[in-house]
């Protein structure tokens, strides 16, 4: 299992120790949740913080934009050296054009779905995606409880990917811990985002390892 700890749950009064932990850990990516207070009812952090993080973090960046008009920020995300730019289907009118622009900027493209958005809305774009990020909580805040229906959605998405021949990886974000992570892994998830479970742990590297072995 690939693991992408969410910076949203790190200590923003002193990020450096948390970033050094990430660099030394078994995790595969660092997940950056960008919130604008419009698409979601919260504001997280912006490009100055992410630029500073990118200079310290040695793990690939997985940037998740929970913002309106994500297509306007492709070049700025590319400037971070991000591996993935993931945007919400619900926040973007011209999805195919945005995916093409992300690829043209040298990044892998992902689409995120809110808990109530059906998997079948991806049928006409799935072959062009590198990642699908399924929200297993309502986007906007860390530390929310896991929505069990997400397991069924992972199963549905795995079938769609396998039937279409898409190379997209399935990522799941929200309420992930060793218990829910095991359910998601069994359903076909490839990547798990974990915030509170990692950064709130007594031993964050051990928490990351517990997800890696699922």
Explain this structure:
This protein is of the alpha/beta class. It is 35% helix and 19% strand. It contains 8 helices and 8 strands. The chain has helices at residues 15-24, 47-56, 74-79, 95-104, 149-164, 178-187, 196-199, 204-212, and strands at residues 2-5, 30-35, 61-66, 84-88, 108-113, 131-135, 169-173, 191-194. The protein has an 8-stranded parallel sheet. Helix 2 (47-56) links the parallel strand 2 and strand 3 (61-66). The longest helix is centred in the C-terminal third of the chain and has 16 residues, at 149-164. The chain is globular. It starts with a strand and ends with a helix.
Which regions contain 5 or more consecutive residues with pLDDT less than 50? none
Mean pLDDT: 97
Major beta sheet summary: 8 strands, parallel
Structural Rg: 16 Å
Shape: globular
Name the structural class. Answer: alpha/beta
- Please give the count of helices: 8
- Biggest sheet: strand arrangement: 1-8-7-6-5-4-3-2
**Oligomeric form:** single chain
What's the helix-strand series? EHEHEHEHEEHEHEHH
| Residue fraction in strands | 15-25%
> How much helix, percentage-wise, in residues?
25-40%
Secondary structure tally: strands: 8
State the distance separating the first and last CA atoms: 6 Å
């Amino acid at each position: 299992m690939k693991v992408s700890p969410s910076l949203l749950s790190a200590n923003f009064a002193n990020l450096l120790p948390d970033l050094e932990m990430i660099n030394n850990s078994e995790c595969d990516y660092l997940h950056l949740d960008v919130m604008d207070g419009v698409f979601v009812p919260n504001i997280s952090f912006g490009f100055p913080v992410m630029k500073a993080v990118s200079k310290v973090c040695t793990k690939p960046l997985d940037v998740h934009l929970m913002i309106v008009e994500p297509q306007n920020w492709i070049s700025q995300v590319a400037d971070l050296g991000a591996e993935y730019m993931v945007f919400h289907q619900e926040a973007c009118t011209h999805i195919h054009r945005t995916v093409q622009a992300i690829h043209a900027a040298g990044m892998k493209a992902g689409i995120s779905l809110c808990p109530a958005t059906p998997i079948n809305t991806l049928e006409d774009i799935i072959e062009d995606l590198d990642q699908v990020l399924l929200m297993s909580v309502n986007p906007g805040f860390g530390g929310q409880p896991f929505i069990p229906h997400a397991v069924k959605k992972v199963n549905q998405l795995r079938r769609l990917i396998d039937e279409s021949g898409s190379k997209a990886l399935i990522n799941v974000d929200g309420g992930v811990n060793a218990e829910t992570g095991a359910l998601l892994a069994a359903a076909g998830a490839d990547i798990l985002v974990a915030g509170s479970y990692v950064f709130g742990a007594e031993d964050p590297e051990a928490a990351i390892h517990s997800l890696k072995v699922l």
